[in-house]
Amino acid sequence: GSCRNIILNNPRKRNALSLAMLQSLREDLLHDVKSKDLRVIVISAEGPVFCSGHDLKELSSEDDVKHHSQVFEICAEVMTLIQKLPVPVIAKVNGLATAAGCQLVASCDIAVASEKSQFATPGVNIGLFCSTPAVALGRSLPRKVALEMLFTGEPLSAQEALMHGLISKVVPEDKLEEETMKISHKICESSKSILALGKATFYRQITQDLDTAYKLTTQVMVDNLTLRDGQEGIEAFIQKRKPVWSH
User: Fold this and answer.
1) How far are the Cα atoms of 60, 129, 131 from residue 49, in angstroms, in the given order?
2) First and final C-alpha spacing in the chain
3) In a domain, 245, yes or no
């Protein structure tokens, strides 16, 4: 299976999520996503800032409310799209991620960050509270940690972000590529259809109460066994051989 790399590449503007950047990110995420070969998507960035969030020039009063709505709507669409994609999405963070940039990291399935990375929601300091980033943040972090970030705008270090569950791993900067590739290669060894089923189910069950979640996942396990790759994996395990996935 293959890995798609999406690189935020406007370091001069600190990789701000302008309307154009969000549209192109959406396009790159959706591009040929049903391809049999695609197994994992990695989002990284050029320059010292992973992503600074919305382009504030687009949010000044010179632009009308319709434009402002459009910016926030497509942003929400991209953030939720990441979790709806049939393949895992990994954020590879090397630098500062703020506001909607921090939301982007929180919205990815897995996030690997270098030790120098930092995470903040500083909107409150400029009079624009990070209410949409708070959706992703409040679902990734303990409430009191999220609210301290939201009320103060102070950044979390990579180590703190790891401790509170905003990211999956912290590594030295020179090991970031290697560590991300390691996870990515591991994912590529699995069946695409099984990963897609597992990812979709995970996000469905996580918001449900315990009984409902077990009802849903019990049915999914039964369905999983009817899939060709489900049976192939079990047979291969019993026969002590490598499975041959259908795609």
Assistant:
1) 22, 21, 21
2) 8
3) no
Structural domain range at position 110: 3-188
Q: Is the same domain home to 60 and 87?
A: yes
Question: What is the full per-residue pLDDT of the chain (247 aa) written as tens digits?
Answer: 899 999 999 999 999 999 999 999 999 999 999 898 999 999 999 999 999 999 999 998 777 899 999 999 999 999 999 999 999 999 999 999 999 999 999 999 999 999 999 999 999 999 999 999 999 999 999 999 999 999 999 999 999 999 999 999 999 999 999 999 999 999 999 999 999 999 999 999 999 999 999 999 999 999 999 999 999 999 999 999 999 999 6
pTM: 0.97
Q: Are 192 and 1 in contact (CB under 8 A)?
A: yes
21 falls within a domain: yes
Report the distance separating Cα 130 and Cα 186, nearest Å: 35
How many domains does the chain divide into? 2
Same domain, 103 and 162: yes
Whether 79 and 140 map to the same domain: the answer is: yes
> Amino acid identity of 55?
D
Alpha-helix runs per DSSP H in 153-188: 158-163, 176-188
